[in-house]
Design a protein that fits this description.
By secondary structure, the chain is of the alpha/beta class. The chain is built from nine helices and seven strands, in the order αβαβαββαααβαβαβα. The strands form three sheets. The chain has a three-stranded parallel sheet with strand order 1-2-5. A two-stranded antiparallel ribbon has the order 3-4. α3 packs antiparallel against α4 and α3 packs parallel to α5.
Length: 276
């Protein structure tokens, strides 16, 4: 991604250029993605949620999906989410009857179970980290849960060193605790951004130029703080191609790649290039 940005600034970016990025720092970026990228000679940037480095718990949104979407047993309980008490009512699911749930949160919800997940997700994402973790403890206590698959957890420091060892993959900052930055006071925003950049620099042994906003959430105050903390550019989740004639280096768009074929991806990219 760094070369992509440098080429924009220099006016030498090819019209069909693409940069590959990953968010959060999942361990499967090392075990699955990195070997594929290496075999194809493709570089990438991984944006790291530094407070989760080495954690044996899944990221909260994945754990929430396991607790609600993947649960087969019925549930009828109350949980604490911030100042609210939320009723959780789930019918039993018969997986043997052929039920599968491939739904993703970016898609329209089609069931009460999906709507409940989205409702709780929206509440959790705007909470401060301590309150959000307390809510997850309440959910875990009420609904149970199993140990996370290691590939669904964040990489360790050793993993990150291995990931970046040959220079093909580099890292950027993605805050400490993955908050919605505009929802935080400015001093907490600054701490989330600066501490994440510093941790990434310690691991990489070099200056970190790039940042990605959690959930893509940003406003002018957030962008200014990211700039003040020393980042040179930042990515959002705004789905678009970069228009090099009027680029905002602290609001670089990205296209979320779903479970598409190569032809589907090519069509999406082509449409975005035309629209830009």
């Amino acid at each position: 991604m760094g070369e992509f940005v440098d080429r924009i600034a220099a006016g030498t970016l090819p019209t069909n250029a693409v940069a590959v990025t990953f968010d959060d720092g999942y361990r499967d970026n090392l075990t699955v993605a990195a070997p594929i990228l290496a075999s194809l000679g493709i570089s990438a940037t991984v944006f790291i949620t530094t407070g989760s480095i080495g954690s044996t718990r899944a990221f909260w949104w994945d754990e929430l999906a396991e607790l609600i979407l993947a649960r087969t047993a019925a549930a009828d309980c109350e949980v604490s989410i911030g100042a609210d008490r939320v009723q959780v009512v789930l019918p039993p699911v018969d997986r043997d009857a052929g039920h599968t749930d491939t739904w993703r949160g970016s898609e329209p919800s089609a069931s009460e179970r999906q709507r409940l997940y989205l409702s709780i997700w929206r509440q959790l994402r705007l909470l401060d980290n301590d309150t959000r973790m307390a809510a997850m403890t309440s959910l875990r206590s009420a609904l149970g849960g199993a140990p996370a698959n290691p590939d669904d957890c964040a990489m360790s420091v050793d993993d990150l060193v291995r990931l970046t060892s040959d220079g093909t993959i580099n890292i950027g900052a993605h805050t400490m605790t993955h908050p919605s930055l505009p929802a935080l006071p400015d001093d907490v925003k600054r701490l989330e951004v600066s501490a994440s950049l510093q941790t990434c620099e310690q691991i990489a042994g070099t200056k970190i130029a790039g940042f990605a906003y959690p959930y893509g959430d940003r406003d002018d105050a957030t962008k200014s703080i990211v700039m003040d903390c020393g980042a040179h550019w930042a990515c959002s989740t705004r789905a678009a191609a970069v228009n090099t004639a009027r680029v905002d280096f602290f609001d670089l768009p990205r296209i979320q790649v779903k479970d598409w074929s190569g032809a589907q991806l090519a069509r999406v990219l082509h449409k975005q290039w035309i629209d830009a």
